[in-house]
Amino acid sequence: MPPDRPARLTVLSGPSGVGKGTVVARLRELYPHVWVSVSCTTRPPRPGERDGVEYHFVSVEQFAQLVRDGELLEHAEFAGNFYGTPRAPLAERLAAGQPTLLEIELQGARQVRQSLPDAFLVFLAPPSMAELERRLAGRGTEPADVIAARLDRARIEMAAEGEFDAVVVNDDIGRATAELVGLIEAVCP
Predict the structure, then answer these.
(1) Which of 140, 150, 173, 176 is the most exposed place for a label (fewest CB within 10 A)?
(2) Is 16 known to sit in a ligand binding site?
(3) pTM for the full model?
(4) How crowded is residue 174: how many other Cβ atoms within 10 Å of its Cβ?
């Protein structure tokens, strides 16, 4: 039987390198009842990423078709690649009353806020800019110029923290994950 009302969507956003993916991976392990939306991207998979798990990896042409067909709730370009959230699976989970999490960048979070004003937006913040720089460099997946661009963008994103309903500082992965789940469960009874 469907719930009396759909669950509220929780959106997790924050600067690149803050640990969104790590928090979400921990959440998937420890709190499997929370459904995590899988975004589409045109970027190539990083080592260990699997199609349909971390992302749906698509071509630029496939992504453009999804946009044309209105199949994405939000979409954005970031660091030369496109990202977007498939609309249908998200709507199905929310209608079924399942706690639902969407991990996206600031531009996408703003689009979600416009189209779904009841969405609960959570900003994942680094303990400091120095720590964020260390994390980005420590990935070893991008050249120095890309890291510099991500840090410039991070400064802009950090200034948007006030647009969010809650802020979680990622200084400890376990604590940050538990705090995020507490926020999800508070808005998705």
Answers:
(1) 140
(2) yes
(3) 0.86
(4) 10
Please indicate, yes or no, if residue 3 is contained in any of the structural domains. no
120 lies in some domain: yes
Q: Is 19 annotated in some ligand binding site? A: yes
Nearest-angstrom CA–CA distance, 136 and 114: 30
**Does 32 appear as a known binding residue?**
no
Query: How many domains, in total, are found in the chain?
Result: 1
Tell whether 84 is in a known binding site: no
State how far the alpha carbon of 51 is from the alpha carbons of 46, 172, 173, in Å.
Answer: 11, 28, 24
Answer yes or no: is 167 within a domain: yes
Each residue of 125-164: pLDDT tens digit?
999 888 887 877 776 667 888 878 878 888 899 999 999 9
138 in a labelled binding site = no
Size of the chain, expressed as the number of residues it contains:
189
Q: Do the domain assignments include residue 1?
A: no
Bridge partners (DSSP) listed for residue 76: 83
